[in-house]
Structure formats: C-alpha cells, structure tokens
Amino acid sequence: MSARVPFAARLGAGGLAALLLLPTAVLAWPVDMRFSLESGADRFHKLSAVDWVEVEDPSIATAEVLSGSNELLLTGKRPGSTLLLLYAEGKFAVWSLSVAEPGARPPAAPAPGLLATARKACPGLEVKEAPERLLLATVKDAPCRTALLALFQTETWLARELELTFELPVLQAQLAAMEPRLKALGLEARYSGAGLVLQGSVPPEAHRRALWELFRQSVGRVALEDRVKVEVPVPPSEGLDAGTGPRAR
Fold it and tell me: Domains in the chain: how many in total?
C-alpha cells in the first residue's frame, strides 16, 4: 500500500519575499505570482530578500535587482509572456511576466477543456471559490499528474491556490523523469521524507538550469533542501595570488 504525501500550497497574498522565506520552498507549476507590464515601461517591486534573478526570455522582459537594495526593476521589452526565476537563501520562486503594448491588455491564456480533463484523470478533484479560491486533488498516478501539469502551465491557477496530496510512487516517478537531466548538469536529487534534496558542486549556470528543470517537470509545491555548492570561478588576477581553482559559496 503506497504512502500519501500531502503538499499544501496555501499562502497569503504577500510579496515574493514571504514566498522565498517560507520553510517550504516554492517549486513547480503553477507560477507563484503574475505581473502585467507595458512595452518600454518599468515597474518596481520591493523584496525583503533576493540573491539573484533570471528571466527566461530577456527579449520580452528584463529584471534587475537594484544595487544596494532588494528592489526589483521589471522592464517590458516587447509583447509576449515569459517566466522569471528568483532565488534567495536556498529557496526560489517563479513569476509569470506578461507584456503588452501601452494601453492594451495582455491576451488571456484560455485553458479549454483542461479542467475537465483533470477532473476525469484525478477522481475527487474539487474546486472551491469561497471563502477563497482553492483546487484540491489527490495525485494517484501518472495520468493525473500529466493532466494537472497541463492545467497548471496555463494562467488559470497560482501556486497558493492548490492543495495536493501525492501517492509516493508518483513522486518517485516524477523524480526519475528529472534525474537524467540533473545528472547531466552534475547534480543529484533524492527525496528525504516529503522534501527534495538537491546536492552537488556546479557552476552558477548549471545550478540555475537545474532549478528551471525542477520547476518545469514538477507539479505543486515541494519542500526543497538546496545543498548545492555553487562554484564561482576565480578571476585570473586572483588566481595568481591565491592559487587557481573555483571557490564555493
């Protein structure tokens, strides 16, 4: 008989900092927050903690942490949608950025039939609208996980609006699907209880690619324990004085 692992994803409507500083890290579809931008316009957002940010497609929008502060500068470049990865203190979040021409509304991302498909694949799936919006489901097998993954990749739901319970074999299969890519990056992942442990020693680029992979291939919230040692290359001038080789941070 398989064990069930509950992963609740119910958060208040606070900013990213609250998301990043929770004991349970943000991981996987759907996104945590959505922001609408105009082409050629800036938008500022104050964070209480952030180490770095990365935009999936910088031709659509850019994000910059202003020097000496935790203020995030978002700039719309051209109409379209992209994702923003944010990292702080071993935890990360993903936002959706939609850019439209000034005065225009970003087009909605309809999900025709996806909820009906998810209901069929996940018996007992329930949607509540009051007192707060909430989707509850038990993920018992691969078809249910696949249906939810398709639904959550739309603009229909936010991570805080989910309450999912996983059968353990589904989590194991989800991890098995990610392992080849993570190993190619030089990293290992394993479950410890309900948490996912990520470890290894890699350059910053590989660490970021691994976080993107975890987000894209997973469903719902997972407690991430990030044990990765990020190796920062030593500039040539420093290497001559202090010895060559990478340093870990």
Answer: 2
